[in-house]
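DM from R.C. (forwarded with permission)

"hey, sorry to bug you on a friday — could you get me a structure for this? deadline for the figure draft is monday and I only need the backbone to look sensible"
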Amino acid sequence: MLDLSVLGEISETALTRDVEIAATESGLPNTFVPGRNIIFLTFAAAVAYRRGLKHVVTGVCETDFSGYPDCRDDTVKALQVALNLGMESRFVLETPLMWIDKAQTWTLAEELGGMALVNLIRTSTLTCYDGEVGTSTSGDEAAACARHASCARRDIDSSPSELQRFR
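My reply, with the result:
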């Protein structure tokens, strides 16, 4: 496990400080931690290099990304080039979620791991920027407080009507 808490020391955002979530002058939400995904992928590539691996997978996507620049396809492609040049390697940064919506993401989860994976994601992962677990509109305990756009999207996108084919 790598300690990346240093991001909180160099970034004043709603994810690293106790401040209310809001839009900034740039138009980005103040939940944007500059360079966070770039740092994550750089560390992942360094570990992959040491282990002789060539594929690094990330869950960023442009269909639901709150405008974060480090979730964009162009950013990931540019980073792949930089990592390959900087490490004299041939990494492939895989982005299986880049161009699919939430419903397609849930379908992919079901195809990869069945209902066990779908249920694990719904009950054991967090979407809430405040780290709160709430109760979804369907009554299921879910990681969605409903105060933030990401939580509301998760609640709608993982509701029984969206997941009815998984039941």
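R.C.: lifesaver. The CA atoms of residues 45 and 51 lie 10 Å apart.
me: no worries. The beta strands are 55-57, 92-94, 134-135, 141-142.
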